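In response to the reviewer comment on reproducibility (Comment 2.3), we provide here a single inverse folding case reported in full, input and output, so that an independent group could reproduce the run without further information from us. The structure tokens appear first.
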């Protein structure tokens, strides 16, 4: 049965209606009927129509034809939910939940679910605890629990959709239902359930589960980013060991390219079944065809290996031919694909996929599924593991199931066990100790085998598993960590078991199977037996002299004590556990023989100590050396070894007597005494980090309570889980820390350890209090600082530095330990105190006390107070205030608005227009106030000063921009909406109101009365819906175009195939353009007063910025060391431009340093940072730069300021182990500057609060954008909805993760906010241009990725943190020679970083608002290769450019190298033209055919995929680029050609090599294509080969930058270039374009290809054209040749000229030298390639053909527009004809109805009240009373059947009465309905012809009432006719309207004809005669000539006026696409 959308919709509505009623009644579904209604609920997965507006009848016009049948039910649904909602908030929650469910709510057919549940039941799976994580209406619950299949089963379900959750609860009241996301499940449920089964949702949405998002496992992190993967891992977490998860999911889980999720799954679980379901599984139930899989997993965390099936499961594959993804498992097991046929097609996203189909429908699918499931379960389900309820059963064989071995005695043959080396040792040991449980030390574990393992697992409660032993046997296996020995040993002995402990004798790292030896036997109620050493180990080692040893830090297995006998304590020391506390000499063997009954010593293998050689130690020495241990203090020489040994011996002797008294106690006691040592045993499980304590036996004392207890102190801000604290004289740590309390966990420590810990805690808490107090109050606390020094000094004196190894381990046990360790820093090989011990580091404390000049006093005042403080300045310079003011005239101005002086650069800056207006108003107010009381309060001098200030402001005001100069965009946010309303009311001839919502950046519009202008003139009718004038108005305001669709036929399922209706889109665009363009004309026609007001508004808002002329020449830079700069870098003075820029940055607090490459930005950055620090403008500046440059920046800074304290982050600083310490160093020290790379900066944790704030703002716009799209009339596709929901879910998950990290904060890692950084210098800031932004222009080319990059987002977080702290814009300095690298749209993102407040003032809150003011979008309609018109949108034109430039320049210092006066070479550009080779000529022909047909096989490659089809021209452009470089880029087997680009380049390189050989001149070769790759053919290697073989250049002099894998090798190559040892260096823009200062000998630079962006070209040229190029200066006329290689008839020249023009525009914008108010950026980019027509023309090599292509494109667009216009006229004519016909019909009807009315009025009888008297007669009724006639009429209505014919039954006042029967279907049954009419000229009805069945009087009056209605009907007709007549003039005007571009079209056609004639003439063969013979012209190929450099005949400077006329290499090409439009 096919999916019936309407029936499904009705079923859903009825289910929702019922569940809402049940909710009101407070009950659940109780009757079978109610349950049946609820079970029919199928979700809205196939019903996305519910997204459309359906609030009123008028919304139906917006619905598509295919959905219109669902309009009424959708209205009903919305009203139903609204009526039952408590408020609008709840209603919106319901609707949002339903919207989200349209993507995921596809319910599984019941037979499929039954097949799964029945198969599991039959396989022996018994379910007691069941989990359904995405329940829907409960199909899986019904199936698993039906027929009491699992009585008493506990069930937990989750359902995120609110309404579905209510239905689920009503259907299943007995189970626990959570109406929330599965991610909300509590951790208590981990490992709780037997089975989890569901059809889980699918989508690449992030899930808000921070624990997964921040997991160390990559699988978990990936799962947090995709819903379906998350459900799998989360589901596995919830089931117990052996439990099952059975999930139906999309094919994406198994087909995904990344294997990490599948690896994680099979690491934790066994694969039981993987079955691929056919695509029609959900067709009947949800109306969708989608591929899906059933995957069943069995949790098995202890597994040792993967089966072959699981190895297959991990591997996804992609078919090379079809590009179809799949999984290797299904290739190995094709029977696991449930289908009857399959074919290659596409999935729901249009990507290649195999479409599986099952011809037998759901029942057939279910039947085949059950068979396949039974087989899989039989093969792979481990029912023993399932039934073990958590005990791990044996691991299955890795490849295939192994039959259970027969239970025979012979099975234990020795031969089967000896296969495993480890087992050989085990068997030998077992023979010696058959009655003991053997504990076998293997690595870090004690393993137990065989029967011992079975016993131990029962006694200890540990997991029993089994291990393969040999080829066919398994042996039981159990084990525990070595550090838990004491806990488990005690339990075994208590259970009466004898235990033998076997230890490793060899380092397991050095041998495959370490030898084992029994070292200790423990017997119940007996002493511990120490086993004698084997003969191979001498019992009495020969004493030898102590010697220095080297160690690699690993354990020493040769002579160290038994590893088991030691455990780390809190302080990181090794303490003995089952051995004496201190080492003593071993007893000699002889003594043992004499006293065999003496207790054996615990350390039988320890060295005897030569005690006789040393004196006994004093008490102090004993205390010191006795506190050391071998782990923390390895004996670095013989002295230490001996002293420690003696100390242990003496201490042991002291304790021996007391210990021996207790030695005879049995093992059952709570303490075990061994050789003078007390081993305290602990109960319960082993807790890592809390080892049992070992202490010397002491006199009995009161037992100390060590149990956890409430923390009695107040919780401080530095208290976290794991913080070390002191309470009641005890040291412990905190857990369960909350705002109002925590739990104190005491630690049992030795007295000396306790003292050390207490002193440390006091020191740590004092530091925390000091730093926090000073950071909060900005006041120093000398009291706390004194205490901090006191505690630190005491600690160091007693215990050594904090960072000494013995202290580090125990300090890191404290949650705040890393902070404490940062209280020291390393200097010159020793630890010194951090700055915080001496002075505050969280704020500046330096104080300036005197200066030399008033200007310096002014600077100091600005530094300290931020204002001009004359009193302070006077104290600094010893000058009175009046003298200061006189001296600073022109530098400071009185500002009456703040009643104080301001510096010129601050007062006459920014928005001077608003400031002047405010000052003028103040002056007027004050003069008015004192005019009658002169001199009253002495304000006159201030008025005079204010007038001077006002004059200065007015003089500085920018030139006013007049109306005629302005460009206006319709939809600019600053223009009042009233103006738009007035214009649209004029255009639409009706009252139109327009409003603007700033928060949503959205316009709304309503018309009081729509008319024909809206319905016809500005209306576009698409196939599915109509877009009237109001729809198009909203698009015009937002500068968007409707996405109109049409049907291209039906797919296999009968659904419409929707494609863009390009003709309708073009027509809509034409009408939108008419609205937008008409606005300027309408403004032009307004009154002068109106225009003046609008111009004032514009000038005051935009043309109001003044950038001061910053003059920094007065600066002296006190600490700058010019001598070192001169010696190292040859810098002997600071450029004036550098001083000006530094002064600007100091005054503004940041800005943009836009200086060209090589003009000294690095020094600007270093000096500005140091000056800001020196003057207090910045407390702790940071510089971030490229990884390649950052070391050079640090070196430059250190050279400029040798005494500066710089923290430079090298690679080691940011390794995981060092990173936290490095962050703390930043926080705790007062560095002059912190320097690091961009990548390192990205690893700094940003302030969680700031991240949350910014992401929340982005999240708030997502739903708003969806609403705006809907209101604009977009057809909301699944893709659009998914994109928005995905963005929403991802942002939600990010916010949740940040919240989680804020709450956890377990490492208390320092974030950026806490570091105190208050200014960031961002070198090469263009690297951060990819910042996220929101836009509706999703189809506009060239905007970049609106999602942005994480590195840009991190920088935004940091800058916002600084801006929030200061409350001002800026806070950062951007330095780059290419701030605008490609497009002016990048300016918006620059402003978003640095000027958020100023953007807000200009009403710019998003990109769209900015673009509406400064950019004009163009929509080009072009013919694609299939001759269809396609739209291409881009922001091509920029308007109001001078104001945009002023806004940019206000915070920017822009300088070119010429401005700066840099002594650098001049660029001499040479365009080297290369005729195409024969192979290239042939391939060009193929390329043109490919571009025409789209047939990729022409190029020798596979046909284009669907995705590639959309990027056809990009592919064609890419091929053309590769072809121009070398044919081997396309076909590696192509042959070399002596005339290709590589040959030309090699010849030119060799020529320059020889010319400058004496000077060792060097050359750069750039190419981004064909870069060096070892082992592959590439252009670099090919040119190198030619240089070596053909020109004899030594190979070592030619290098590729890609060969440099390390920074060291990179520097070496650069140095070799500068020294002339390397003469030619190849590289790409990214690797060679920045950070390479190898210019010293550069004489030539070669561009093999042209990059995409102007900035890239600038960076390339800057490698040679920069200061320090000595060879060019001395030997090449101070010029560097830059050669551009261009193959004719390729894209080379076109692309190069395009870049030149774009770069010119950008430079003019920056410099303010642009005379135009509008610029055109051109139309080619790396994302889209070229358009078809230009591509064809350029490849043809004829400029005229390009012009022809452009003319044809314009003509085609105009003709298409004319066609659309004529179609609109035809539609209007038809509409006029229809209206005229309707008017005539209406008038005729009115006339005839008036006749009936007059006839009735002439005969009607009325009573005294004027009511008509009824004179009804019925033909078939003899009775005349009303009652009987009424009964008779009711009988007729019930029993009559006229079979659709009118039949007379009576009359009233002479008008006949008739009855007619109509047939209807009600609930599947046919019924008959009868209607009555009164016949006159028309048939009249009352109550729609139905008579009253319960009232006989009303039944009889029906007919008179019908006649009484005639006047009302006439009135309605007359009103309708009047409205129609009013529309006639408007329609006539529309029909009379002519198309306005007819003349333009004629002119273009005329130009095209002339051009055709010219081309024809040029293409005609030309023949010449010489001496009477015909001369055949030579081909370009034959005449190609490679000329030497600087030959006037071959070298051409790039000049727009003198480009060579080869093919298309002229600027003519570009002039058509990149014109500068003058304002």
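Designed residues, in position order:
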């Amino acid at each position: 049965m096919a999916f019936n959308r309407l029936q499904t919709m009705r079923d859903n509505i009825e289910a929702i209606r019922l569940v809402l009623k049940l909710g009101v009644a407070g009950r659940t579904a109780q009757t079978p009927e109610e349950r049946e209604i609820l079970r029919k609920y199928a979700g809205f997965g196939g019903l996305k129509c519910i997204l459309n507006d359906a609030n009123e009848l008028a919304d139906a016009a917006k619905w598509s034809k295919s959905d219109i049948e669902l309009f009424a039910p959708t209205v009903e649904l919305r009203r139903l939910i609204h009526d039952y909602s408590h408020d609008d908030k709840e209603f919106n929650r319901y609707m949002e939940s339903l919207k989200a469910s349209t993507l995921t709510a596809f319910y599984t057919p019941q037979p499929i679910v039954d097949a799964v549940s029945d198969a599991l039941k039959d396989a022996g799976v018994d379910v007691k605890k069941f989990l359904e994580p995405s329940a829907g209406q409960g199909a899986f619950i019904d199936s698993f629990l039906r027929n009491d299949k699992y009585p008493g089963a506990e069930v937990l379900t989750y359902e995120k959709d609110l309404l579905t959750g209510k239905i689920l609860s009503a259907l299943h009241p007995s189970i626990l239902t959570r109406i929330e996301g599965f991610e909300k499940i509590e951790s208590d449920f981990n490992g709780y359930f037997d089975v989890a089964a569901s059809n889980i949702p699918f989508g690449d949405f992030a899930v808000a589960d921070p624990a997964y998002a921040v997991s160390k496992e990559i699988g978990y992190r990936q799962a947090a980013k995709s819903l379906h993967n998350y459900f799998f891992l989360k589901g596995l977490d919830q089931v117990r060991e052996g439990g099952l998860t059975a999930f139906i999911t999309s094919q994406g889980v198994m087909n995904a390219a990344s294997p990490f999720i599948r690896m994680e799954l099979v690491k934790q679980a066994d694969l039981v079944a993987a079955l691929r379901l056919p695509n029609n599984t959900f067709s009947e139930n949800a109306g969708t065809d989608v591929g899906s899989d059933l995957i069943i997993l069995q949790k098995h965390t202890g597994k040792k290996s993967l089966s072959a099936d699981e190895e297959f499961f991990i591997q996804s594959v992609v078919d090379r031919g079809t590009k179809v993804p799949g999984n290797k498992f299904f290739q190995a097991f094709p029977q696991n694909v449930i289908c009857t046929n399959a074919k290659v097609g596409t999935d729901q996203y249009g990507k290649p996929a195999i479409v599986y189909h099952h011809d037998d429908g759901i029942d057939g699918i279910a039947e085949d599924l059950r068979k396949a499931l039974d087989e899989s379960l039989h093969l792979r389900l481990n029912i023993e593991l399932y039934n073990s309820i958590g005990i791990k059963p044996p691991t299955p064989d890795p490849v295939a199931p192994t039959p259970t071995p027969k239970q025979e005695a012979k099975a234990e043959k020795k031969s089967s066990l000896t296969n495993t080396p480890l087992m050989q040792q085990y068997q030998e040991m077992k023979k010696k100790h058959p009655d003991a449980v053997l504990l076998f030390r293997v690595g870090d574990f004690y393993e137990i085998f065989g029967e011992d393992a079975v016993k131990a697992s029962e006694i200890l409660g540990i997991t029993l598993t089994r291990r393969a032993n040999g080829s066919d046997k398994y042996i039981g296996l159990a084990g525990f960590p070595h550090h838990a020995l004491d806990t488990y040993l005690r339990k075994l002995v208590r259970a009466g078991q004898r235990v033998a402990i076997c230890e490793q004798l060899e380092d397991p790292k050095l041998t495959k199977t370490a030898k084992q030896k029994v070292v200790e036997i423990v017997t119940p109620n007996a002493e511990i037996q120490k086993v004698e050493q084997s003969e191979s180990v001498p019992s009495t080692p020969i004493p030898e002299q102590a010697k220095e040893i080297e160690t690699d830090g690993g354990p020493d297995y040769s002579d160290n004590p038994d590893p088991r006998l030691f455990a780390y304590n809190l302080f990181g020391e090794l303490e003995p556990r089952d051995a004496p506390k201190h080492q003593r000499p071993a007893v000699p063997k002889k003594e043992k023989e004499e006293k065999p009954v003496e207790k054996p010593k615990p350390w039988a293998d320890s060295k005897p100590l030569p005690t006789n050689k040393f004196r006994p130690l004093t008490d102090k020495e004993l205390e010191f050396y006795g506190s050391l241990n071998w782990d923390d203090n390895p004996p670095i020489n013989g002295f230490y070894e001996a002293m420690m040994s003696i100390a242990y011996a003496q201490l042991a002797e002291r304790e021996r007597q007391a210990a021996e008294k207790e030695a005879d106690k049995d093992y059952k006691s709570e303490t075990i005494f061994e050789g003078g040592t007390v081993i305290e045993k602990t109960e319960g499980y082993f807790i890592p980090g809390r080892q049992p304590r070992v202490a010397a036996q002491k006199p009995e004392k009161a037992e100390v309570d060590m149990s956890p207890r409430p923390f009695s102190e107040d919780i401080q801000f530095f208290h976290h889980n794991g913080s070390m604290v002191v309470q009641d004289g005890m040291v412990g740590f905190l857990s369960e820390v909350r705002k109002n309390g925590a739990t104190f966990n005491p630690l049992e420590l030795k007295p000396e350890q306790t003292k050390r810990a207490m002193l440390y805690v006091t020191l740590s808490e004092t530091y925390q209090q000091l730093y926090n107090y000073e950071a909060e109050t900005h006041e120093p606390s000398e009291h706390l600082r004194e205490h901090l020094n006191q505690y630190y000094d005491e600690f160091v004196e007693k215990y050594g530095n904090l960072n000494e190894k013995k202290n580090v381990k125990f300090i890191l046990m404290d949650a705040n330990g890393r902070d404490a360790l940062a209280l020291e820093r390393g200097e010159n090989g020793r630890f010194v105190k951090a700055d915080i011990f001496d002075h505050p580091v969280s704020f500046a404390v330096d104080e300036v006390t005197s200066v030399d000049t008033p200007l310096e006093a002014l600077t100091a005042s600005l530094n300290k107070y931020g204002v001009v403080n004359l009193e302070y300045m006077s104290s600094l310079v010893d000058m009175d205030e009046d003298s200061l003011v006189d001296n600073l005239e022109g530098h400071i101005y009185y500002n009456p608005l703040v009643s104080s002086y301001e510096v010129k650069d601050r007062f006459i800056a920014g928005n001077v227009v608003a400031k002047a207006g405010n000052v003028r108003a103040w002056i007027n107010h004050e003069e008015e106030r004192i005019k009658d009381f002169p001199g009253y309060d002495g304000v006159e001098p201030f008025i005079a000063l204010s007038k001077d200030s006002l004059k200065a402001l007015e003089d500085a005001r920018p030139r006013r921009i007049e109306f005629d100069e302005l460009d206006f965009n319709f939809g600019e946010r600053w223009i009042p909406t009233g103006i738009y309303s007035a214009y649209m009311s004029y255009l639409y001839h009706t009252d139109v109101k327009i409003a603007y919502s700033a928060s949503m950046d959205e316009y709304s519009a309503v018309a009081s009365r729509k008319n024909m202008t809206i319905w016809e003139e500005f209306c576009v009718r698409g196939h599915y819906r109509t877009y009237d004038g109001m729809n198009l108005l909203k698009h015009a305001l937002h500068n968007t175009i409707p996405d109109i669709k049409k049907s291209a036929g039906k797919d296999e399922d009968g659904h419409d195939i929707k494609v863009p209706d390009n003709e309708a889109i073009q027509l809509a665009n034409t009408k939108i353009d008419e609205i937008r363009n008409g606005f300027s004309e309408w403004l032009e026609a307004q009154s002068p007063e109106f225009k003046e007001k609008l111009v004032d508004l514009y000038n005051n808002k935009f043309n109001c910025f003044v950038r001061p002329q910053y003059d920094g020449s007065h600066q002296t830079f006190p600490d700058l060391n010019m001598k070192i700069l001169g010696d190292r870098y040859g810098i002997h003075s600071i450029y004036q431009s550098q001083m000006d820029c530094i002064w600007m940055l100091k005054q503004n607090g940041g800005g943009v340093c836009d200086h060209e490459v090589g003009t000294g930005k690095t020094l600007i950055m270093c000096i500005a940072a140091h000056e800001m620090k020196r003057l207090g403008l910045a407390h702790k500046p940071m510089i971030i730069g490229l990884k390649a440059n950052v070391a050079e920046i640090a070196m430059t800074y250190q050279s400029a300021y040798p005494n500066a304290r710089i923290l430079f982050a090298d690679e080691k600083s940011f390794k995981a182990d060092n990173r936290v310490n490095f962050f703390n160093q930043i926080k705790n020290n007062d560095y002059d500057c912190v320097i690091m790379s961009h990548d390192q900066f990205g690893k700094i944790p940003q302030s969680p609060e700031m991240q949350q704030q910014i992401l929340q703002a982005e999240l708030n716009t997502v739903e708003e954008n969806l609403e705006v799209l809907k209101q604009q009339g977009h057809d909301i596709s699944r893709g659009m909805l998914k994109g928005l929901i995905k963005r929403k879910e991802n942002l939600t998950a990010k916010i949740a993760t940040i919240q989680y990290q804020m709450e956890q904060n377990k490492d208390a890692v320092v974030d950026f906010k806490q570091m105190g950084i208050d200014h960031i210098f961002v070198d090469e800031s263009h690297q951060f241009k990819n910042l996220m932004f929101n836009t509706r222009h999703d189809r506009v080319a060239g905007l970049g990725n609106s999602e942005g990059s994480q590195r840009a987002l991190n920088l935004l977080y940091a800058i916002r943190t600084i801006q929030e702290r200061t409350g001002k814009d800026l806070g950062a300095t951007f330095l780059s020679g290419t701030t605008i690298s490609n497009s002016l749209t990048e300016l918006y993102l620059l402003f978003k970083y640095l000027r958020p407040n100023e953007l807000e003032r200009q009403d710019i809150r998003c990109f769209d608002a900015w673009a509406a003011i400064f950019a004009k979008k163009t929509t080009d309609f072009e013919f694609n290769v299939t001759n269809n018109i396609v739209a291409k949108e881009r922001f091509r034109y920029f308007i109001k450019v001078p104001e945009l430039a002023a806004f940019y320049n206000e915070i920017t210092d822009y300088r070119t190298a010429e401005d700066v006066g840099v002594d650098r070479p001049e660029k001499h550009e040479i365009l080297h033209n290369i005729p195409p080779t024969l192979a290239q000529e042939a391939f060009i022909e193929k390329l043109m055919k490919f571009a025409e047909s789209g047939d990729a096989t022409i190029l020798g490659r596979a046909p284009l995929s669907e995705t590639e089809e959309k990027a056809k021209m990009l592919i064609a452009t890419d091929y053309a680029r590769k072809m121009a470089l070398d044919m081997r880029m396309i076909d590696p087997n192509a042959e070399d050609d002596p005339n290709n680009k590589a040959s030309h380049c090699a010849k030119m390189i060799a020529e320059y090599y020889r010319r400058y050989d004496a000077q060792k001149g060097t050359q750069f070769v750039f190419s981004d294509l064909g870069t060096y790759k070892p082992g592959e053919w590439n252009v670099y290697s090919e040119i190198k080969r030619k240089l070596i073989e053909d020109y004899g250049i030594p190979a070592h002099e030619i290098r590729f930058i890609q060969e440099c894998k390390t920074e060291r090798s990179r520097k070496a190559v650069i140095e070799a270039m500068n020294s002339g040892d390397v003469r030619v260096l190849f590289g790409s823009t990214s690797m060679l374009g920045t950070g390479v200062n190898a210019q010293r000998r550069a004489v030539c630079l070669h561009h093999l290809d042209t990059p995409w962006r102007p900035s890239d070209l600038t960076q390339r040229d800057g490698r040679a054209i920069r200061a320090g190029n000595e060879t060019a200066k001395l030997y090449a006329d101070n010029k560097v040749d830059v050669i551009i290689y261009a193959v004719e008839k390729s894209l080379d020249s076109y692309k190069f000229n395009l870049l030149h023009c774009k770069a010119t525009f950008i430079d003019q914008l920056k410099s303010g030298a642009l005379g135009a108010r509008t610029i055109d950026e051109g139309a080619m980019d790396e994302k889209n390639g070229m358009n078809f027509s230009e591509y064809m023309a350029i490849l043809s090599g004829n400029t005229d053909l390009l012009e022809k292509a452009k003319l044809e494109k314009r003509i085609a667009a105009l003709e298409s527009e004319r066609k659309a216009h004529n179609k609109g006229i035809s539609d209007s004519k038809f509409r006029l004809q229809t209206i005229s016909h309707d008017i005539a019909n209406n008038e005729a009807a009115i006339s005839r109805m008036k006749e009936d009315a007059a006839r009735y009025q002439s005969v009607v009888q009325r009573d005294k009240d004027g009511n008509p008297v009824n004179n009804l007669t019925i033909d078939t009724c003899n009775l005349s009373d009303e009652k009987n006639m009424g009964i008779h009429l009711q009988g007729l209505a019930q029993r009559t059947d006229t079979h659709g014919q009118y039949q007379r039954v009576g009359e009233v006042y002479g008008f006949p009465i008739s009855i007619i029967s109509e047939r209807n279907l009600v609930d599947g049954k046919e019924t008959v309905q009868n209607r009555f009419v009164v016949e006159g000229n028309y048939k009249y009805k009352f109550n729609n012809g139905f008579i009253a069945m319960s009232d006989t009087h009303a039944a009889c009056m029906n007919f008179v009432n019908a006649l009484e209605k005639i006047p009302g009907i006439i009135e309605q007709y007359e009103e309708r006719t009047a409205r129609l007549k009013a529309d006639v003039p408007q329609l006539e005007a529309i029909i009379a309207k002519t198309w306005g571009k007819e003349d333009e079209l004629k002119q273009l056609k005329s130009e095209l004809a002339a051009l055709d004639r010219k081309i024809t003439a040029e293409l005609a063969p030309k023949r010449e005669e010489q001496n009477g013979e015909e001369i055949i012209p030579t081909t370009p190929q034959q005449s190609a000539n490679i000329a030497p450099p600087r030959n006037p005949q071959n070298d051409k400077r790039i000049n727009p006026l003198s480009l060579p006329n080869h093919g298309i290499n002229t600027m003519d090409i570009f002039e058509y696409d990149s014109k500068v439009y003058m304002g």
